[in-house]
Structures are given as C-alpha cells and as structure tokens.
Amino acid sequence: MEGYTFTLLIPLILFATFLLIGLAGGKLKPIISGITGVVSLSVVSIISYITAYDYFFVNGKVDGVFGKIIVYDAEWLRFTDSLFIKMGILLDPISVMMLVVISTVSLMVHIYSLGYMHNEGGFSRYYSFLSLFTFAMMGLVISTNIFQTYIFWELVGVSSYLLIGFYYNRPSAVAAAKKAFIVTRFADLGFLIGILLLSSLTGTFDFVELTNVNGSAITAGSSVLFMGLSSMTWALILVFIGCAGKSAMFPLHIWLPDAMEGPTPVSALIHAATMVVAGVYLVARLFPLYALSAPVALEMIAYVGAFTSMFAAIIACTQTDIKRVLAFSTISQIGIMMVGLGVSGYAAETGLGFTASMFHLFTHAMFKALLFLGAGAVIHAVHTNEISGMGGLRKYLPVTHITFLVACLAISGIPPFSGFFSKDEILVAVKEKDSFLFYFESIVSGLSAFYMFRLYFGIFWNRNTTYEHTPHEAGMSMKIPLIILAILAAVTGFIPFSEFVTSDGIPFISHIHWDIAIPATIVGLIGITAAFIFYKKESDLSDKAAASLGGFYNTVHKKFYIDEIYIFVTKKIIFNMVSTPVAWFDRNVVDGTMNGIASVTNFVSEKIKRFQSGQLQQYAFVMVTGMIIIIALIFYFLKN
Amino acid sequence: MSTESLIVFFIAGVVMVGGGIIVSELVAPTSKNAVKDETYECGIPTKGESWVQFKVGYYLFAILFLIFDVETIFMVPWAVVMGELGLVAFIEILIFLIIVSLGLLYAWQKGALKWD
Amino acid sequence: MIQIKDLLEVLPLLIIAFSAIFILLLEVSIKKSETVIFGFSLIAILAAIATSFNYFNKEMIIFNQFLRISNASLTFSVIILISMLITVIASKSYIEKENVNFGEYYSMLLFALMGMMLMIFANDILIIFIGLELMSVCFYVLAGFLRLRQKSNESALKYFLLGAFMTGFILYGIALIYGITGTTNLTLIFSDAKVLTNYVFIIGTALLIIGFMFKIGVFPFHMWIPDVYDGAPTVVSGMLSTAGKIAAVGTILPIILAVNILNFKIIFSVAAVATMLYGNVIALAQTNIKRLLAYSSIASAGYIFVGVASMNEFALRGIAYYLIAYTFMQLGAFIIVAMLEKKDDGSRDYKNVDLDFYKGLGKRNPVIATFMTFFLFSLAGIPPFAGFWGKYYLFFAAIKSNQIWLAVVAILLSLIGVYYYLKIIVYMWFSESLEPVSEEKFSFSDTGFAATVLAVIGTILFGVDPNLFFSLFKFVTP
Questions:
Q1: Which chain B residues are within 8 Å of C28, Cβ to Cβ?
Q2: Mind listing the pLDDT tens digit for each residue in A377-417?
Q3: In terms of residue numbers, what domain contains C469?
Q4: Which position among C8, C221, C278, C409 has the lowest Cβ density within 10 Å, counted as fewest Cβ atoms?
Q5: Mean pLDDT estimate for chain A
Q6: Mean of pLDDT values over A614-634
C-alpha cells in the first residue's frame, strides 16, 4: 500500500486535463489542446507502466499470490452507521492489466487523432471528451466497490454518448448516440437492481469482501430460492444484464454498429478496446462469486457469449461498410471472451478460461484498435466507408497495408501473432468444459478469419479502382500509432499471461496444447483461403454465392432484422398499447390531481394571507392566546 | 402576620377610602357648568395646543442620567462586600466604570451633552 | 471564584466585546473612519472564529458557574460568527448605498453578536437574560437603522413592542423557576429530577421556552416576522433570520433536552407542523421577495422544530447541520436581494423588491442569477447543495423518533416550498425582463458580491461533503 499512492495521480491528471481542455480549450489554438491531451496521457501511461512493472515483477506477489492491494479507500457519503459509500483505488492483476491497456490504447488514439481530426471543428471539445472518457474508464477499473463502479459505469456511458454524437449536426450521429445511451441505460436498470440485491444479500458493496472466498459473501443468498435459482444467482444474472448491455451481447448489441457514426479514433478507443470490454471486466471482477456461488449464471454467460459470437460473425460476412464489419467483429470477439469466462472454473488450472479471456481482452484491444485506426487511415485516404469504393490500395498505402495485414493475421489466429495464443487458450478452456461449444467456437474462428480477410482483400487487392485524387498515405502522427500497435499485436502473444493474471491470483504455467492449436490454425487458414478465392481478384464469385443463398443472405445482410423487430415492438406494441394509455392517465389523472392540489393550496393561501394583518394588537392577541392554549395543554398532559 | 388580620386590614382599608369617596359622591351638592370642565392654566383662558414638541435634549439627558444612576446602584452592593474580596474586586469595578465612562465619552463626542 | 485565567477561556467573547467598544471610540476619534471600522470588525470576527477552534473538546464551566464551554455551544457560536462575518462583508456596500454609513452600525452588529454568544455560552438563566436583552435591543436598533424610511421605522417599532412584550413573559418564567428551585444556575436547576414534577416549575420552563419560540419564529409566535423582515434593511433581515434564529435555538436546546421526559413533544410537533404550514402556504401568495423570504424563514423554523420535536442524537446533528446550511443559503439570498435594490432616493418603500423585478434576471446579470439559483435550490432541499443534507438529517431524526407522520407531513409541506423557490428561478431564467438589459452585466464592486461568493462556497462545500461539518466541528451531543 505504501508504494502505490502515486496511482492516485492517474485519475486526477485525467480529470484535470478534461477540465483544462474543456474550459480553456476554446480560447487557445486547437493544436494546444491536442498536445495537452497527448502529454497528459503519456504521463498517465508512464505511471501505469511503472505500476504494472512494480506490481507484476517486484512487489505484487505476496506469498506466491498476486493479491488485491487497496491503495485508497476514503469514505464519501455516510447515510447511517452501516450504510456508507466509499471511493478508492484497488490494484489487482486485472485492474493493473486494464490500466496498461487503457492508457496505451488511449495514448495511441490521442496521437492518431492529432492527424485524423486535424481540420475538424470542435478539436478541443474532442480532446476534452477523450480525457473525460479515459478518466471514467480508469475510475471504473480501479474501483474498490461496486457502487463506485456503477458511478463510473454511467460516466463512461455519458462520455460515449458525447463522443458518438460528436458530429452533432448529423441526424444519424445524434440518433446513434441516443440509441447507444438508451440501450445501455436500459441494461443498467438490471445492473442497478442487481447491485441492490447483491448488496442487501451480502451486506457490503466492497469488492474485497464480496470476492473473499473465505468470507461470508460467497455463501450469502444461497438458501432462498426463487423460481429454482438462488437469490445470489438472480443478483448476478441481473448484474450480467448490465454487462451485456455495455459489452453489446445479443440482444443488446444493436447500439454498437450504429455507434460507428462517431469519429474513427473514438471507435478504436471506446468501441473496440475499452468501454465494450467493461462488461467482461466486471464479470471478471466478480468472478469468485460467479464461479463459486452461481455457476448457473456462468453457464448462461457462456451460452449468451457463444450465441452472440456466432450471430455477429455471420452478419459480419455480409456487411459492406468497413466500420460495420469491424463493429460486428468486435461483438463476436467479446462473445468469445464471455465464453472464456463462462467455461472457467476457479483456482489453478481450472481457471484457465479466466486467464484466457483476460489474455484475449488484452490482445484484442491491441489488434482491434489497430484495425480501426487502419480503417481510419483508409477512410481518410479515400473518403468513403464502403468497400465497394476501395480496392488495390496496397500500392498507395503501404504502411497501412502492412499493419492492417498484421492485425488481420492476429485476429485470425495465425501464429506467431498474438491472437493465435489468446484464442488458442480460450479454445483449450472451452474444450475441457463442453465439446459442443468447442466446435461451435471453432466455426466462429473460421468465420472470423473469413470475414476479416474478405475485408482485407476487398480493400487492398481486388480491383484496381481509379480514384479521383490519388489516395495518400497517412501522416506521421497517424502512422506511428499504427506501427506501435502492430508491433504489440505481433509480440504480446508471447507474454506468459497465466503467470500474471489468474482467477485466484496464484500464477500457474500454461503451455500450448498443440492438439488444439494446430486444428484451430488450420480452420483459420481455411477461412483465409476462402476469402482469397472469393475476393482477391475481381470476380463475381461472391455475388453468385450470395444469390444462391437468396433469402438467407438478405436476412443476414439486414442483420437478421433485429433493429426492425425492436422498432416494431417499441412503436406498435409498447407505444400504442402501453405508453398511450399510461400517458393519458399521467396527463389527466396524475397531473389533474397535482394541479388540483396546487390550486387548492393557492386558494387557501389567498384566503389566509389576510391573517397577517399588520396590526400589532392582533399579533399580541394571537401570541397570548397561543400561550394560554399551550399552557392549558401542558396542564392537560400533566394530569394524565 | 396571620391571615385573619390581613383580611381585616384589607377590608378596613377598602372601607375607609372607598367609603369616604362614596359618601361624598352621595352627599355633596353638584353644579355643572362648562367652565369647570376646561383645562387649568392659572385661571387665564387657554392658548394654543397642549401637545407640543419637546426638546429631544430632555430625553438624552434623562437616558444618560438613568444609565449612571443604575451604575451607582450597582456600585452599592459592591461597596458592601469589597472589603472581603480585596484587590480583584477593585479591578473588576474599575473595568466596569471604565466601560461605562467610555460610553459617556462617546455620547460627549457625539454632541449629546450639548443643550442647543 | 472568578479566576483571572478564566478570561483566557472566553477569548472569542472578549475579542468581540472589546472590539465593539473600541469601534465606538474609533468612531468618535477618527474622521471618515468607516472603512477602518469595517476592516477592524472583520478582523475581530475572524479572530474570534480562529480562537474558537482552540476550545473544542474541552468541557468546562467557568466564571463562577456562569458560563459553560462545550462542543455544542462552540459549534453554534462559530456558526453565528460565520453568519455575522458574511453579514459584515455584505453590509459595507449596502449601508453606503442607503446613506446610513455610520460606524455605529458595525458596533451594533458586534454588540448583538456578543449578546448572542453570551446567551449560548450561558450556564445561568440571568446570563441568558442579559445576552437576550443585549441582542434584542441591538436588533431593534438595527431593524430601524434606515431612519428616514417609514418601513424601517415601522418594523423597528413593531419588533420592539412585541419583543418587550415577550420579554415580560420570559422574566415571569424565570421568576417562577427561581421561586421553585431557589437558584438561577442551569446545572443546579436541572440536577434535581423531582423538580420536574412541580407544576409551577413546568409552567415557568414553558414560559421560558415560549419566549424563545418567539425569537425563533414558531407558530403562533411568528406574527412579527413578515413585517419586521420586510421593513428592516435587507442585510439586517438576513442577519436576523439566520444569526438571531441560531442564537435562540442554541440557547433553548439544552433546556429542552433537560425537560425532555415531559410531554412537550406533542406540542412541539403540532407547533412545527403549524409553522411549516403557515410559512409555506402564505409564501405562495407573496409578490414581494423580502416577505417571501420572511415566510420561507418561518417555514425553516418549522423544520428546525421538527428536529426539536424529535430530540434524539440524530436530531441534534440535524439541527446543527440545517442551521449551518440555512446560514449560507438564507443569508446569501437576502444579500442578493440587497445587492439588487436601488440606491436610496428618500422613498418610503424599498425599490426593486417585487418579484417582477426578478423576471429576466438571467439575461441582465447571469452571475448573480446563477448564485441566486444555487441558494434557491439549496432552500428547496435539492442535492448537491447543503440544504438537502440539512433537511435529510432532520426528517431522518423524526423517523427515528417514531414520529413518521411528522416526517411525512414535513416532506409534503416542504414540497409546497419548492414551488415558490422554483417560481423565482423560472422568473429569472425563463421570463422576459421587465427592466432594460444594459451592457454592464457584471459589477463586482459591491462587497455583497464577495459575501455571496462565500455563501455559495459554503452551500456547495457542505452539500457535496456532509462529513466535513461533523469532522470540522467535532459535534457531539451536548
């Protein structure tokens, strides 16, 4: 505890930057806001790296266990002696890992945006929102108790709303921001109820107490059954609903594709690497509870994750907008992370799923951010998002090409890139638990490789489109993050993650299971080959295949009509059958009552204001009368 | 004193005074005329309003007199016990006197003591 | 025996007392001394606040059993000092504006302050009386300070007559108490439990409490408040409504605690409800902002009395918290009204105190309108301002004392209050201005502005971190 007090600087610096840029940015030259953001994030990144180094390599391991370290825990609000809300900083393997991930990706995005957002209006506003978001995300991962998590959870949602709707002059952007906020807010209702239920069952908000395997929280709520599940299970399922909303699990995934309306670096930061993994992070944070007290909930998480991953992967194969493909890819990958958590046990090797999921979170952040930033470079060059407007760009954008290729190889699980290692570990964990899920997820891996390389070939190979003005390679500020992330996507696979991040803090050695890795790689290569056949050269093979699938293809292209179903349900059913009568009731009965009370009060007021006559004699008379009545009452009460 | 003698005393007082007034009301001759009800001003006809504005100086002097009179009264019990209490009591009354005379100084400088 | 060293224990009191006298001397010896006096009184109050913090956690009875220093009384005394500080800062521009810039004003304020502190630290009924009279007489003078304005004279006269009337009852109560117990010392009086069964003693205590209910402004002894607050100079009204109330509450609280076993609870609850009802309902019909704030202060007295009616440890916390929140918000609101008044032009009434004047204030002077909005939100009990926590602790105390009906009624009645506070906010921001909008939107020369900033800081600070108050004042039950 002594050594880590400097971690308080992380949220403080970020919040101060937000205020500084937000308040003063309008008055200064835009580039100053950008530089301020980059500088402060560099400082924060350095602090994160120092913390990580210190925690993982020097001090963190106490008696062979990476323990939870509470750096601060200050009481903020005290309602009664037993109910109080604290704010603090908690360091443990996953939070330190997240510190590194968030600060690195955010720093890359800050540098990248210097070039990408160069001539955009609202440059300072953009950077202040980026700082706000990073602050909120940092606050979320270092929370010591679930209430603090909730506060920062909402703050993250707000920053996401602000950033998605950054181009507020575009109706589609505004609508997308609203949709994101409303869907996640709706999920947060479940989250809040879950928090309340959880805290009332266990009597605490604090993570250390909640996840203490020897403590009382683990067994709380297991006795009372409701519809066959213990109340603890219900609480955790409700909390998971909040996670599902934030992490875009089916059926709450609808906001993420639309969120691509925001600037591309924002998509890289928020919707690929950090915010959307908040749900996964929270499940990981509460993992002992899930694993030991509510295994049913974990199973549910696994299946939801699996379904989502397949669902999104299929849709991604048919999308034509670069960012939409990447969005569905993100949904799919997060589904895989959820599966990893869902099949995991607790303690030592049975906790492989946990480690694998966190590892995949880590590597995914790198290569997905890289993919988005690369897509941004492409969009910046050709001014369109559609694949149909691209092709043959490898000649014009060499750096973007190579880095994009690295990312695609990583996500497809081709050795020696990072995705290979992380996906392999998840598949191993899944195989041990459930064979059906293993084959299911393998198919998803194959599809991932297929649609990613469909994208890759479509952009950089395929046909030699002639462009109006020659696409130019991105500027230095955009290239550097691409290169750095590509290097990270290549090498991070070699980190022996299980020696750092495990379900119970005790490191173990894991090794590559070649009997699973080789088939997985082959599946990936099959996917790449299929994409090669269909898309490398310009041909109508893909259109013929699509036509042969006919109606099914159309359904998938329209994302299985999920959005339309939602709109139908809300507009036709909820609005007409539920909202309209309720609104009538509200306007006439409720408002009528309130207005009635108000007019009665007003009437009374007008009538009795004359009681204050201004005449001294009357005042004295009232006072003496009051005195006599009070004394008489005292006598009366004394007699009894 | 016993209750009975008090009551007797009270009744005697009422009877003597009240009786005198009542008897003179009944027995004395009356004659009313307008001149008898006029205000007395040394026998001459009254002139002018009787409600006149007083000089505020009277009020100021009266208030100041009241304050210093009460100060004197406070000093009387002090004088009685001063012997036993010694130096401390002397210093305390000195402080009291100084504070009150500061008030006098204030009134003096503000012109409350000027008659015109 | 009075020890000389006892003098050191009452340093705040001494500082204020000597400053008050010294100011009078300054007034007569130096020409054009008003600014010097202003600065001097400011320093005196700040010194008193600073030295007060030295005495926390020392419980002692000094000066021949006449004074008692305890955490509770120190807390109340510091709150009053803060209230006076803000008043003094705001007064400077106000009395210059109204052409009554006399040094005696500050002296009166400090004498009143001394009276209030004497009342709070008193351990003897006679000392309470001395403090009460000192405070009241100074208040009468301050209320009538604008000698040439008819409204001010009217308010002073009414206050004086009614105040003197009630003082008579207080004296009678003191006499009865003395007659039964044979002593005027509070600790001795309440040390003997069987005295509480004596009818005469109870009547005497009741009269004493009733006298202080007059000062706090509880139904049915609140009739003087609208006229007096309306007519007095606005900054003085602010001070009366905060410091005066706090002094009365702080004095009577130990006495009410001591007679707690009696059935005064029901009477206090009914009085509280009647007060809140009266204050909140009649405020709805007001068109003069000073009168509106006066009625709101009556309602606040009602909330405090909800705490008095509950009288458990939560109630004491609640009362203290509400009082400090109330100081900042009510005083702030009054000072803003004072800043917006027009310069004195010899007229009978105060100008610019109609609610219509506040229409469109958001456009004319957004900074002041924002501050006023903060104060009004705090008065309405909306977080994150201090008023929310004050009301929360008070109503919570009512619930804890098994008087849930009281808490429910109080919440409903304070809801009515929200209306007229929000009405002003709506007028300020959403109505068309009836006054011309000038270019000069920000005038910072008014010291009232500095006072308002202090009040805003207090409102927000104690609203965001309620624990600050309890750790600052180490407020424990007295």
A1: 105-106, 109-110
A2: 888 888 888 887 787 788 888 888 889 999 999 998 888 88
A3: 261-478
A4: C8
A5: 84
A6: 88
Do C149 and C133 touch, CB atoms closer than 8 A? no
Tell whether A627 lies on the interface with C, counting CB pairs under 8 A: yes
Query: Does residue C282 belong to the interface with chain A, where contact is any CB pair within 8 Å?
Result: yes
| Alpha carbon of C28: minimum distance to chain B alpha carbons (Å) | 6
- List of residues 6+ apart from A262 with CB closer than 8 A: A163, A164, A165, A166, A167, A173, A176, A177, A270, A271
For residues C49-76, one letter each, b for 16 or more C-beta atoms within 10 angstroms of the residue's C-beta and e for the rest, the string is bebbeebbeeeebbbebbbbbbbbbbbb
Rounded to two decimals, what is the model's pTM? Answer: 0.65
Q: Is the pLDDT of residue A516 over 70?
A: yes
- Asked if the structure places residue C122 within a domain, the reply is no
Closest partner residue to C220 (CB to CB) among A598, A609, A622 is A622
Do A177 and A196 form a contact (C-beta atoms < 8 A)? no
Report DSSP state, residue C355: G
The average pLDDT across C232-245 equals: 93
Q: What's the half-sphere exposure (Cβ side, CA atoms, 13 Å) at C413?
A: 28
Residue C10 inside a domain? The answer is: no
Chains that touch A (3 or more CB pairs under 8 A): C
Tell me which of C198, C208, C223 to substitute to probe the interface with A (most A C-beta atoms closer than 10 Å). C223
Which of A363-367, A408-412, C268-272, C472-476 is the least confident region?
A: C472-476
Residues in chain C within 8 Å Cβ distance of B102: 21, 24-25
Question: Does B102 contact C24 at a Cβ distance shorter than 8 Å?
Answer: yes
Q: What is the CA radius of gyration of chain B?
A: 27
Probe site for chain C from B102, B108, B113 (most C CB atoms < 10 A): B102
Size (chain C), residues: 478
Contacts of C21 in chain B (CB under 8 A): 99, 102
Residue C83 has pLDDT above 70, yes or no: yes
Touching C (3+ Cβ pairs <8 A), the chains are A, B
How many domains is chain C partitioned into structurally? 1
Provide ipTM, 2 decimals: 0.84
Per-position DSSP letters for C178-198, written without gaps between them: HHHHS--BHHHHTT-GGGGG-
Q: Is C148 inside any structural domain? A: no
Does the distance separating the beta carbons of C466 and A78 come in below 8 Å? yes
